[in-house]
User: What shape does this take?
Amino acid sequence: MKPLQAVWVGLAAVVLGAGAAAPSADQASDALAREIFKQLVEINTTDSVGNVTTAAEAMAQRFRAAGFPPADVQVLGDNARKKNLVVRLHGTGKHRPVLLIGHLDVVEAARADWSTDPFQFVEKDGYFYGRGTQDMKDDDAIMVATLLRMKQENYRPDRDIIVALTADEEGGCCNGVDWLLKNHRDLVDAAFAINTDGYSVESEHGVPQAFRLDASQKVYADYQLTVTNKGGHSSEPRPDNAIYELAQALLRVQQYQFPFELNTVTRAYFESIAKVATPQRAADIQGILRDPPDEAAVQRLSASVPDNAIMRTNCVATRLEGGHANNALPQRAQANINCRIFPGHSQEEIRQQLIGVIADAHVTVRYVADNGEVRERGSDRKGFPPPPLMPEVVQPLERVTASTWKGLRVIPYMSAGASDSIYTVAAGIPSYGISGVAVDSDDMRMHGQDERLRITSFDTANGFFYRFLRALTSQ
Assistant: This one.
């Protein structure tokens, strides 16, 4: 019996019990995907103490056991605990390859903050709990399960399918997609890339509302705010207290609202979503689409966190430290401001805007590079224009979406976050954010406490991605 066939037979017993009829291919794939999902969540891949290489090697072992040649399963990287997995399923070569990317690293998670152990895969109340269940070990597991299923079925796509599971998307620097492109471009070069980071199906109480095709994204930037003075004895407080001054600066940033903006992608998104929105929301959307926009409508939509995130540049304080003793005036106070910059504006432009908003010569604003280096200025690059919506990607996506969720429309979308697509786009590889995962708008827990994913969402996404990848590679 071949190794992968043995896996499928073993899963039959898991799904239906010993002696029962064999499961369908979809049932077996769902069971395998869940098994992989559990394995990945329970491997700590945080930047501080985790090990991405352990997760990469665990997935590599699955591919090797399934019969993938060693040359097509490579674990690569300069950092011993931050290596990347690159796997290739060979096709007919009729078309250039498709690259699927997803990161294995996750953000930090403190056990004391969670109701469950963040690095234990817990199933309860119709959800899977654990760090990475939304961002993004769910999609990593689905990509692995899909490629293993295709191998078991002896499927031969019309183009090579490359899967890259990588490090350093959430934290750290220089060991992930960027490193692969710079050091092993031949292994990951492709006609286009599908980045499964995030979720595409916007839902309310488990009911899908729209399928968001990420065709653009914001620019990521960190800024260090620093206040220093001579300090002194705490019995004689002074108004130039470093912490007080920093607090005032943070309050000004919090209260400042960057200007409302639209680009071709966000305009297309709002035009499409207005057709299925509530009457008030639809009216507000029409208001912001006018020239000039209706300011009252802008403010009403800005009250929605997801809408506000794609309507302007946003900056928020994420870290704070200061002082050196309980009985002394602080000599130094420091904070990190994280910004997600609307395309068309540079990191340096936003740094200058922050200086103007803070309006305090005692507060120094510096740019923090991806490698942690603090610099006097940021980059002048203003992001990349969105790639064209390639028919060979959009058409199969629309077909499979319509067959998976009746009546659901594919809508171009700008991601409010930032992802590894910045590297593939910079390398000249058109990149699209596509995932079959559905997340309720009021239950987005990525990077947060008690991260979880609805079980039915995971299973549906697994089936969707398999059908989409087949449609994408059999045109």
User: Anything to note?
Assistant: The first strand starts at residue 73 and ends at 76. The domain at 3-217+385-472 is CATH 3.40.630.10 (Aminopeptidase).
